[in-house]
Amino acid sequence: MSLTTTSTGSAATAAGPVPPSPALPRASRSRQKSRGLLLIWIFVAPALIVYVTFVLVPVALAAVYSFFNWNGLGALDRFIGFDNYIRALSDPIFLGAMTNNFLIVVLSLLIQGPLAIGIALLLNRPLRGRALIRTLVFVPYVLSEVVAGLAFRLMLPPGGPLDTMLTSIGWTGDKPLWLADPDVAFWTLFAVITWKYLGFAIILMLAGLQGVPEELSEAAAIDGASWWQTQRHITLPLLGPTIRIWAFLSMIGSLQLFDMVWILTGGGPLNATETMATYMVEYGNGRSQIGYGSAVAVILFVVSLVIALLYQRYVLRRDMRGAITRG
Amino acid sequence: MNRRAPRRWAAIALSGLTIGALAACSPSADPGTGGNGGSGSGDEVVLTWWHNGTGEPLLGFWEDVAAEFEEANPGVRVDVTAYQNEELQRTLIPNQLRTGGGLDLYQQWGAGELAAQVEAGFVKDISAEVSERVDQMGGVVAPWQFDGATYGLPFNFGISGFWYNTELFAEAGIEGTPETLDELYDAIEALKAAGIVPIAVGAGDGWPAAHYWYHFVLKSCSPEILQEAQVSYTFDDPCFEEAGALLEEFIASEPFNPGFLATSAQQGAGSSAGQVATGAAAMELMGHWNPGVMGGILQEETGDENATPPEFLGWFNFPAIPGAAGDATAALGGGDGFSCTAWSPPECTDLLNYITSVEVQTRFGEIGAGIPVTPGSEAGISDVNLLQVLEGLQASTYVQLWLDTAYGPTVGGAMNEGIVNLFGGQGSPTAIVDNMRNAAATL
């Protein structure tokens, strides 16, 4: 912990602006200063323009649209105040979608987290073929969502490859309708998401484990600590910052989950796998109610923002200390 | 000169390029200039044409038509591109129309959607340019008209019915095709007894399941009630709920493929069309485009570019319900057409007139992709099934446009959702109508 923050802190200081040499005459100094400013603008401008055009402006536009009844084609002239928000927040399908998002957040933290830590701890030990296993574990994450989603879609229909495989290993009875049964589809989706994103969590944890000094484990071993005790009292606490950052990424990803659901189930059957993002696309874009869809987008944005800020304020605070230079 | 200067100039040039590129991406403010459509370099006129024929034979056919038009009209270039249907209809076209350029001729499904586009000022009134063609085609143009003016022309129009596997029907001992709903129930039982999945339905896509309800509505409601509903969005007549009750009864007979709630309509062998094409299910209620879709799926699945729609395919109209209040000779259908954008050059209507000419329409019939609209081109249809669809179309006194197209995406989407819920056992006949009323209230 302390090692990380110190090194980040000193790096930030080293990268800070170098004070101008007092020996330069005043005119030259100001010319150098304006030249420096120009240079900063030149380097920042492209990114800034892209950011403003493709992030800030759309966010602001969505906020404006959300107060109108607008089909996306005609003039923006039917102001309806907060009606779109009231409609979304009283629609059982949207509330169901929101519940699904939060369920995925909680399940990811409870299931993917411990699983990733466990596998990372195993992969961090000397093991034959470790590099190969690490690669295999990471492969699903590298695949694009659309490719992985389509692959599962092709594997999961009734009587499809998965069912055939299950029959061949002895399950001869009726199989669940993996994607077509509203009671099963959500769990199928969660299993696919776990398969897809577990590799990323494992790689993060493995990277975090590299930062845990070996000397501490060695000292503990000399003191007679078992492998399990070493992991519990030394490795895990030192892995804290990594776990907290992973949890943050996982939460935001779960709240904004779209592509995998869209490809795999489209939010169905009977809205069982709907997330806020799929709801937004289907009810906003699909039904030509851009104003309503924008209101849903704003709700999704606010929910994610509030959670992100709260998390940063209360959980990531310790990890951020020293990492941000305040001038 | 210091050595860093060239790098700095490179940075300035780079940011200049970025700004330039962004400016090029931003929509043209004046629709009259037409983005990249209509105003090509020099004297060349560029027509940008978007359609949904992503599979053969339609893909190559439209490319040929574009090339022929270019040849006959020197100085005109036609950029023709195919996009996946739902993407094209729901995302690409509305977004492009809003930019006021970059698109000239585009796929038009007509009715509710056309009305919204016309009211927003994005569609060209082509009444004068195509008056001759409209006279020729007759009433079938109605979905592409709004407030007495013409805003597009159809090139394909047909009705929905059951596509079935004649071999599986024979295997189940079914003679002839079901003429009444009771006979359809008998056929379903016979197929089940023979261990065959009676009907495949792509309820995962919504609309294929909804077509069942549309058909029952047609059997329960008179054409007058349907026409009134289309204009005023009133669904108070009890016939709408009666249709739901008929559908509920039909679903209860469990005729559908396992996992139909997640089945798509047209993608791959697992889709409803794929299941019928590969002999995994015996029937599918679908529009006249189905043989083309099945041919495309078989091409993908077998890798054989020349794969054709299955030979065992047959067609019959949705069975009658004796004593029902609706018009017994009414049919459910719809078509595909093209519209010109408000800012398109005059050549756009020329191309549209060429597409709907007897010559091109006859060839359209010959390739078996659909049913041509322009009178005189029927001779091109050689596909036996399409001929049957055409016969059904000609025999019907009233053709109701697909209800979701007729009511537009907002009410149509809510209606389809209510119907799929009924398929999944979570809805009711009343809930479908409530969904429609609630959606209409948000218009």
TrEMBL record, chain A:
Residues 98-311 form the ABC transmembrane type-1 domain. Keywords: Cell membrane, Membrane, Transmembrane, Transmembrane helix, Transport. Residues 1-28 are annotated as: Disordered. This is Carbohydrate ABC transporter membrane protein 1 (CUT1 family). Belongs to the binding-protein-dependent transport system permease family. Residues 1-16 have a biased composition (Low complexity). InterPro entries: ABC_transporter_permease, MetI-like, MetI-like_sf. CDD domains: TM_PBP2 (cd06261). Pfam families: BPD_transp_1. It is a multi-pass membrane protein. The keyword Kinase does not apply. It comes from the Bacteria. GO terms for biological process: transmembrane transport. The keyword Cell membrane applies. Its main location: membrane. It is found in: Cell membrane. The chain crosses the membrane at residues 38-68, 102-123, 135-156, 184-207, 245-270, 290-311. GO terms for cellular component: plasma membrane.
TrEMBL record, chain B:
Residues 1-23 form the signal peptide. Keywords: Signal. It comes from Microcella alkaliphila. Pfam families: SBP_bac_1. It comes from the Bacteria. The keyword Nucleotide-binding does not apply. This is Carbohydrate ABC transporter substrate-binding protein (CUT1 family). InterPro entries: Bact_solute-bd_prot1, SBP. PROSITE patterns: PROKAR_LIPOPROTEIN. PANTHER family: ARABINOSE-BINDING PROTEIN-RELATED, BLR3389 PROTEIN.
